[in-house]
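To illustrate this point, we now present one chain and its tokenised fold:
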Amino acid sequence: MLELLQHVERIAKDAGQNILLPAFESQLAMQTRKSDGSIVTETDEKAQAFIQEALYALDPSIGFLGEEMSQEEQLQALHHGGKFWCVDPLDGTGNFTTPMPLFAISIALIADGKPVLACIYDPVRDEMFSATLGNGLRINGEKYTPIPINKTLDDCIGFVDFKRLKTPLAIQLVTKKHYRSQRNIGTCALEWAWLAAGRAQFIVHGGQKLWDYAAGLLLAEEAACMVTDFEGKHPFAQSRLSCPILAASNTDLSQAWLSLVDENA
């Protein structure tokens, strides 16, 4: 599995350095809006095509689910059975087109209904976050040992996406001091990677897509983080294209967030 991971890391890095960065620096890529209002650029599509072809060359028997596919194609890949790659070729497209240097490539291998290999690559900082199931988190190829987080929630900094939360919970989080501070950097992939690396202590998001959380979830869990949906269930407990996310550096913080969500359901 390590050899496969190294191949995937190389694919992500090649796409980041040779497709994403040149387009980001030139800002010449054409962009349009999808039916849900989100932005898609020709760079998203070019990067996905490159990654899909490179992954197919590694093993043509493994399926593929990418953000820039139609929902019908995504559901077909999700429910087909067997292994499949789950890819976001450019997470943080809004940042990318601003231009703000916060975006990443996210690749996960799903087998038996859960992620077993993952990498998130930040081309601006040339940082690679990766993992295989049961073997811990790697940062730039080196095994990372997380430092235990003993903070209480009111002393933590993390990521909250307010616009996808139900109004009562959003108001509660804005008006009451439940945590030290919050951020939203416009890229789920980097929020997951930074949580896993101990650079934040939680993620609260009302609805991430499968390609937003598939790779990041494995990175976080391999760094001893707790991940659930808003009902306390694992995001991969059922087959779905989107899911609310509660992720925290330890069990106590996870339980604190679950209690807050339950009180404001």
Summary: The chain has two domains: 2-144, 153-263. Residues 30 and 41 are 6 Å apart (CA to CA). The radius of gyration is 18 Å. The mean pLDDT is 94.
